Amino acid sequence: MRARLLALVLLLMLAGCSSGGTRDDGRITLRFQSLAWQEESVEANKRLVKEWNAAHPDVRVEYVQGSWDSVHDQLLTAFEGGEAPDVIHDASDDLADFAYGGYLADLTGLLPARLKSDIPRRSWETATFGNGVYGVPFLQEPRVLIANATWLRRSGVRIPTPKEPWSWAEFRRITERLSGPGKYGVAWPLKEPVSATLNLSLSAGGQLFHRGPDGKVTVRFGAADQVVPRTIHDQANTDRSASPTTLGSGGSDTLPGFFAGRYAMVPLGFSYRQQIVQQAPKGFDWQVLPAPAGAGGLTQGVSPQTLSIAEDCPHKKEAAAFLDFLLRPPNMVRLALGDWMLPTGTQALRDSALRTTRHGWATGAALAAQLRPAPAQTVRGYPEWKDKVATPALQEYYSGAIGLGALRERLEGDGNLVLARYQR
Amino acid sequence: MRISRAARVGQYTALLAYLVFLAFPFLWLVSTAFKPPRELGSLHPTWIPKDPTLGNFRQAFDEQPLLHAAFNSLIAALGAAVVAVLIATPMAYVVARRRTRLAKAVTGWVVVSQAFPFVLLIIPLFLVLKNLRLINSVPGLVLVYVVWALPFALWMLAGYVRAVPPELEEAAAVDGAGRVRTLVSVTAPLLAPGIVATGLFAFITAWNEFFFALVLLKTPEKQTLPVVLTHFIGAEGVADLGPLAAAAFLATLPSLVVFAIIQRRITGGMLTGAVKS
Predict the structure, then answer these.
(1) Which residues contact A196 (CB under 8 A, 6 or more apart)?
(2) What is the pLDDT of residues A318-327, one digit of tens each?
(3) Given this model, what pLDDT does residue B269 score?
(4) Which residue range(s) make up the domain with B36?
(5) Which of A273, A239, A236, A242 is nearest to A257 (CA)?
(6) Span A375-380, mean pLDDT?
(7) Which residues of A122-156 are buried (b: 16+ CB within 10 A; e: fewer)?
(8) Terminal Cα-to-Cα distance of chain B (whole angstroms)
(9) For residue A279, which residues of chain B lie inside 8 Å, CB to CB?
(10) Global pTM?
(11) Is the dihedral of CA A104, A105, A106, A110 positive or negative?
């Protein structure tokens, strides 16, 4: 928080002082800041940069390691200090400030037609702000159920598939059936409850944020929005089929209990499979199941990873050519495999490496067409609404401290007051 | 005052519990650094890895430029320590020897300045460094660390100066030594332990510092160890725990070793002059 506060103050004090960040020493040099962090992902990125440099001696790309933990503050100060990388890896839900702030280049006229048509419109929407496109969405991950396959098989429950997923009601019945003394059908890691709840609520037809004809957004916590939170609440507090202790945990924290046979299922991001492959005890049989579906089918909200070009970059054409190279279908597949995520590109998604049943790739790939922009993607004031209103309200609701009525009152009453301040 | 046996046992038990509490994170870090991934995911973790591995260290070095980052940290910490001591020593002498209102005010200001939040300090520093073109440079970071370490270094050294009997300096003056000569030949040698302790204190604080380094250093070749450690953390706080623990363990070692060597002197430095003889 301090760093963020600092960055904002610096933003005000130093506006207009930037001076461009690309170095030229006879030939063009582009700095590519990647947020890849897993071993295979870092390796895939570095190899692609190496291949580019070998094929393009006049346009050299420097690999710069960034960090998810501090990317927003680091980029903000970098933009202001005139030290921004030329090619920027980030997530779509972090781009709005930079796009509206004029720090990122509009890619509309820079990208080749091949790339534009390869990525579905719904993915482009996540990086479109106003009339411009400020990032190429290239990797995304749905939330899936990672299940103890042996436990599920022995229990005799119907195993869901993307074609025949569980409904939310069925999911609740099944987790109740799987539970017993000291054992739970599901362990929800809800340290960050807002994005998980909102993104999954799309499957039940939930929308929560409603844009009026005047363009202003209001929060309405309707019946469809209540399906997912109510299911989680009831699993944890009524059925006792969800472990109450994991509600405040991160995804990784639930894995030891999952491996030890305490929980039959854990809803996690698709990329968590890498940790499971690494950490699961030998002989532990697990499988990937689609998240439950509702009135909205298997639809889910996602904030894809993006690649952008800094507005200050003096060689935007060359930077766009590098993006084109990095995101060619075979390369996109390599990046997706390295990050254990799904590519947005339709051609890459067809690759057999991403269609194998091994490690649940096929299940994830089958969900790709159902992924939509996260509901909060373009809502101004969302971060404050999330931190001050929705996170504590959902945490209290999931823990059983407040009921659905109070949750609704908080999300709508307090929430709309917050959003209104941003929409005057 | 006689302390009963039960009270003594209680004291030692409390002390032992406190030591265990202090040591726990470090011992856990060491244990994690040597565990293979499968043991990291165990619900019943053990202190001693069942199947110890150096794989985490290998991976940490393969993925991140740890040695280069350690070199940057070393330069920044050494630079900060040397400059802080060079500036703080004459200042401490004046503050300790000249018991004027000004010296008292300076001491008061030094103490108060320790309460400033970083965010207040870094904005003027950032602006100054930008004008000096020292953003994204290790010398710029050294400058910040000096400013940061100076108040405490001054306070600490002033205690050492007060412990040197003024009579020795008066004797040197009687023998014809000038003020500078007295300071260099008489006072400085007696201050040596304090200077070393203060310098090493500045070194350790700079070595471990994260916030300023994160904000001021932009390019990877300039980054220090604490900043590079964050590269093992992914989106939503997911961490590559094994390599992160291995790298963090290595990053902790230098300051632990240095601290182990100088801790007596630091304690002595802080207490020197506390009691009037």
Answers:
(1) A143, A188, A190, A267
(2) 999 999 999 9
(3) 53
(4) 5-52
(5) A242
(6) 82
(7) ebbebbbbeeebbbbbbbbbbbbbbbbbebbeeee
(8) 23
(9) 37-38, 40-41
(10) 0.81
(11) negative
Dump the DSSP string for A242-256.
B-GGGGG--HHHHHH
Q: Which residue, among B8, A119, B222, has the nearest Cα to A127 in the 3D structure? A: A119
Kindly report the CATH class assigned to A2-134+305-343.
alpha beta
Query: Counting one residue from A and one from B, how many pairs have CB atoms under 8 Å apart?
Result: 115
- What tokens were used for B92? 């401490």
Q: Give the closest residue to B85 by CA, choosing from B166, B188, B164.
A: B188
Question: Is B275 a member of any domain?
Answer: no
Distance (Å) from the alpha carbon of B22 to chain A's nearest alpha carbon: 23
Closest residue in A to B216 (Cα) is A77
* Tally of CB atoms within 10 A around B231: 28
B-side interface with A, Cβ within 8 Å?
37-38, 40-45, 59, 62-64, 117-119, 122-123, 126-127, 130, 135-136, 211, 214-215, 218-220, 227-228, 230-241, 243
Do B67 and B40 sit in the same domain of this protein? Answer: no
pLDDT of B26-73, one tens digit each? 999 999 999 998 898 888 888 999 999 999 999 999 888 899 999 999
Number of continuous H segments (helices) and E segments (strands) in chain B: 13, 0
Tokens of A32: 């590519």
ipTM: 0.72
Whole-number Å distance between alpha carbons of A370 and A46: 31
**Domain A143-302+376-421 annotated CATH 3.40.50.300:** no
At A264, the pLDDT band (50, 70, 90 cuts) reads very high
How many angstroms separate the CA atoms of B47 and A219, rounded?
A: 49
Q: Which residues of A touch B127 (CB under 8 A)?
A: 13-14
A133: which 2 tokens? 């496109």
Task: Work out the pLDDT band at A106, boundaries 50, 70, 90.
Answer: very high
| Same structural domain, B159 and B239 | yes
User: Which DSSP letter does residue A203 get?
Assistant: G
For chain B, how are helix, strand and coil distributed in percent, rounded to 5?
80, 0, 20
